[in-house]
Amino acid sequence: MKAKHALLSLLLVPFASLQAGYKLVQAPLPEDLMQVHIYELDNGLTVYLTENDETPTFRSEITVRAGSKDDPEDATGLAHYLEHLLFKGNHEMGTSDWEKEKVHIDRITELYEEHFAEDDSERRAEIYEEINKESQLAAQYAIPGEFDTLISALGGSGINAYTAPDRTVYLEELPSNRLEQWAKIESARFTNPVLRLFQPELEIVYEEKNRAMDSKDRLIQEAIFELLYGEHPYGSQTALGSIEHLKRPSLKKIHEFFEAHYVANNMAIALAGDFEAEEAIEVIDKHFSSWKSGDVPEFTRPMPAPITEKKSTTIHYPGQENVIIGFDTAPTKHEDEPALKLLDMILDNASAGLINLNLNQQQRVAQAGSFPYIRNDAGSQFLYGAPKEGQTLEEVEALLLEQLDLIKKGEFEDWILPAIVTDFKKNEKLALETNAGRLRLISTSYGEKKAWPDVVGEIARMEAVTKDDLIAIANKYFSKPYVVAYRKDGDYTPPTVPKPVFDPIDIDRSKQSEFAASVLAIESELIEPDFLEKGEDYQVMKLGKGVRLFYVQNPANDLFALSKVYEMGSREMRELPMAAELLDKSGTSKRAPAELKKAWYALGADFNFAIGDHNTTLNVSGLEENFDETLELFQEVLTDSQGDAKVLEELVAIQLKKKADAMKEPSMIFNALRNYTRFGEDSPFLTALSTDEIKALTVDDLIGKANQLSGYEHDYLYVGKMPIKEVAKKLKKLSRTKMALKPAPSRVLPKLIQREANEIVYVDYETAQSQIRIEFPGGLYDESKLPSIETFNEYFYGGMAGIVFQEMREARALAYSVWAHYLVSSFADGENLVMGFIGTQADKTVDSLAAYLDLWDNMPNSSDRFAIIQGSLDNQYRVSKIGFRKVLGSVKAWERLGIQGDPREERYEEIMDGDLESLFSFYESEIQGQPKMISILGPSAAIDMDQLKQHGELTQVEISDIFVD
């Protein structure tokens, strides 16, 4: 059979292809690094296949050429609703008795239509009560999360989906021996889907809307899109939909949307991973050939009108101010698209673009950048910036426009164009190392209706663009009027909607559909686990006293990565974060700061100084052919960085403004709150440098702190093509010193606060959602407990198929985002931390906390659930081969735990020997009934504080209490 299809690939024999039910429409192109095979089934379904044997898995992305722009004007958010509902199963999957369930599903659909058409609020409330009752009856037969449970049981991960303006994409990754099961599940999923459990899902989608309304970045983005795209759905509709439409959905319209757009000839399946294309297409044809094709509705709404005059809008939100400028450009597939992408990189390539060098490097603004937004119906170029203290948004706007003027006048250096092309090539190679990176490109290209040869040839077309071409394109698009949105510091009150009358759904974990049983009964050849072996998968060499080289061969491409790692961070040396910021703005005695940035970019190299709590890493990466020059530049920065007092003065001012802005930003406030609840006065937000300490810093202080690192023991981590001995020879030059290297200082590991009873620490802040964190200490690190911890994590949380997700989200509709994790310490002498999170509408705070606390202390006991998660863990371990770029990070992490070599084999054996009784023994001794430290950020006006006090001693703190002065 393989031989037959290998012949087809070469000859494209029409008769043989017809027999097979598919045809090869694009053989792998010689210049295609992914060697993509593109097939088309007889029903019009497009299939992209790219082989990648780095790990024994495959990734699936199913793309529909329909997104939020296709929502009806009176039912926005519909495409996104449907995305959620396509996880609920069909008449075979997700139900224990479809015939009985159908009666209630049909009635629920009728009631929602009445609710959709009814204008009287009291009558709508009455209808909703009827929906609630009917939903309870339907739920008797539903099997919530069966799709997710099946994928997880097969060892799948990364189950997700997203709705974009022009496409909707469904994705997951599974073991490579599960292709047949995947095909059976996914082909069924899109056949006769049932919109079951709609009532709780409605509330979940609204919780997602609440989260969006608390996002300052989303708010300004929506504001400028409205200015730029006008009545076109890109500007007038959002993926999440309007509040009014979300609360008055139509299941009939959702069904109509599915029938119109989810047809085989409007969809594509893309697989990347460890399989043979000729075998995979036969499996896909077998299962997906039953999908129906159809006439896809034509998009008839007007295209965005050209911008003929400057338009602006202003929104208010607490904290950092921002300005975004938008120019309308060209849509996808336009002949100017390659040049527009190059222009954006000339502005901002994160290193040596005009904005990077003229604004960020010189600290003329707090921060700035640019990005293109090129969609099927319209394109745009955005520039954004945040002001320094005393700087207006209009001044930042003018500085951004100056950078465009430089391009229009041709005032950019010739070397930058080939460097940008090299950057694109490098990032393409990095993306293709993973299945996710490969499919991201494929799904995007299908959604944008691009021919694959054009996708493969895009970088070549960029190489053909000249400087004169770019000057002409810049003047063509950036000499026109533009739109601008300003986000100013000010009060913001999100819209509020009262919580609905909603009865929780009872979940029976013993139920399983006949369809699920048939999938799990399919036999597959087992994959043998692959654990790391020193000497085979990685090597370690001593370079000198206190210096080691960790080495991994790169089997994929010519890109190297080199890290210099010190076992000390901001907890041990508080000035290091500021030192790293100064070094980023500094040059050397040989090169000014801007020239240094240009030198890195011209080499196709990246450099960064990463500061963690207890680790400091200097990272450099780039092209193997430029390794020597890159290493020389690395050495120059390490030994000859030159700070400047004026640069530091400006840096201090910017950092202090960022610090002040953070005290108004909900996500930062919550981060500080949970650390305060966790550590008290030892919170990193309180032990960080104070305002006075930051103001007192000098260049000598900071450069001196950075230089001090060189006196400590360190390791090099290298991934690349060179033999280890050659790498060692080159690196020894960097480590020559007459001084004896000191061991890393003792880690500063603050102790977690152990409560005697539940305590709630609360910050009153105006948000649409309350953020809730539940935590308690999990004792000192103990390797012998790891198998039990992993089993608990999978049993209790386990992603979308887990107890937490099912009980809090599917059954009670209390949260869009909810998770739990028993977090193991990163160090042998550190403490574990058990944690859970809920993001919930503010008036659901007490209900959510009560339900979650009950779940923690009364974890459901289910032998069916245990059998599923143990099988899932078995499958996960069997495909847990660590990719070559992650090997050294894993080895170092194990070493910090006092483990030499790969500990996963022993953990795996113990997990497989475990049983439900041993899991609950661990749960009862380590988790059940433990006093909780609870952090809550939310608006007091929406929270019943008396009821809240029933769940723990309540302490309200001010924002000033949790940030250092």
From TrEMBL:
For this UniProt record, the keywords arranged alphabetically read as follows:
Hydrolase, Metalloprotease, Protease, Signal, Zinc
Domain Peptidase M16 C-terminal, chain residue ranges per copy: 251-419, 719-854
One GO-annotated biological process of the protein: proteolysis
The signal peptide stretch is 1-20
InterPro entries per the record? Metalloenz_LuxS/M16, Pept_M16_N, Peptidase_M16, Peptidase_M16_C
UniProt keyword annotation of Protease present = yes
GO MF, one term, reads: metal ion binding
* Gene3D superfamilies with a match to the protein in the record: Metalloenzyme, LuxS/M16 peptidase-like (3.30.830.10)
Q: Does the keyword Protease apply?
A: yes
Question: Residue ranges of the Peptidase M16 N-terminal domain?
Answer: 49-90
Q: Name one Pfam family in it.
A: Peptidase_M16_C
* Assigned protein family: Belongs to the peptidase M16 family.
Q: What is this protein called?
A: Insulinase family protein
Organism, by scientific name, is: Pelagicoccus mobilis
